[in-house]
From TrEMBL:
It comes from the Eukaryota. PROSITE patterns: CTLH, LISH. Residues 55-112 form the CTLH domain. This is CTLH domain-containing protein. InterPro entries: CRA_dom, CTLH/CRA, CTLH_C, LisH, Ubq-SigPath_Reg. Pfam families: CTLH, LisH. It comes from Malassezia yamatoensis. SMART domains: CRA (SM00757), CTLH (SM00668), LisH (SM00667). The lineage of its organism: Eukaryota, Fungi, Dikarya, Basidiomycota, Ustilaginomycotina.
Length: 242
């Protein structure tokens, strides 16, 4: 077994240039739309933003609009930015339309939500067969009393009806916009954390490495690096990075 002190001593011997760390932090801020923090960090480190300010502004605004529940307005803004984003991403388009229906349900407009599903979701299932299972799960929201919070409600239904689902769709839309701007879709910081977790599995006692060593709490890292805004205030640049 490798002791904690020995393990950390070994880690401390690995050179990690500060410039590389700065680039990882700046990349995270850009991908997550933390414009003011990114600009401040860029000025302090001398690193270029590698992204047009207007593109960043548009993406941040679309995210804020979606996170406050104005899905239709967010979709209009996306089409103004680049209509090909939704035209070429049928799954993303479905999730946005699905979220529009769910927002109607949150507002107590169940008849309107059912009509919206019939007019906008059902045709997507006919056009894209891979969406049929998701459509069935979506329609099940009308079967359950979602406001009751009953533990008998299936997990998938609870996930869809949760306000956190806005964040999931916002992340998906954010990635699509980044891709349309020829930028990578996920923060390098999160990719590195995922690589760390996988490497620990390989090196650990249950992997081919068969080594007992102190593991970093990657679950906590992933939790704290993932933004959880539900409104514009929680999108502030004071959100934690690590």
């Amino acid at each position: 077994m490798v002791s904690s002190s020995e393990w950390h001593a070994r880690l401390a011997q690995i050179p990690v240039p500060k410039r590389d760390l700065d680039r990882i932090v700046l990349d995270y801020l850009l991908v997550q739309g933390r414009k003011e923090a990114a600009e401040t960090f860029s000025n302090e480190t001398g690193l270029s933003l590698e992204m047009e300010s207007s593109d960043l502004d548009a993406r941040v605004e679309i995210r804020k609009i979606l996170l406050r529940g104005d899905v239709a307005e967010a979709m209009e803004c996306v089409n103004e930015l680049n209509p090909e984003i939704l035209d070429t991403n049928p799954v993303l388009f479905f999730h946005l339309q699905q979220l529009r229906m769910i927002e109607l349900m949150h507002q107590g407009q169940f008849d309107e939500a059912l009509l919206f599903a019939a007019e906008h979701l059902a045709p997507l299932g006919e056009e894209h067969g891979s969406l049929l299972n998701e459509i069935e799960q979506t329609m099940s929201l009308f079967v359950f009393d979602m406001s009751s919070g009953s533990p008998a409600i299936p997990a998938y239904a609870q996930r869809l009806y949760s306000k956190d689902y806005r964040q999931r769709v916002a992340d998906e839309l954010n990635s699509a916009i980044l891709a349309s701007q020829s930028y990578h879709c996920s923060a390098k910081l999160l990719e590195l954390v995922q690589m760390l977790r996988y490497s620990e599995q390989l090196l650990g006692q249950n992997g081919p490495g068969k080594t007992d060593f102190p593991h970093l709490s990657t679950a906590d890292l992933l939790h704290t690096t993932r933004p959880k805004p539900e409104n514009a205030e929680s999108m502030s640049d004071t959100s934690p990075i690590l």
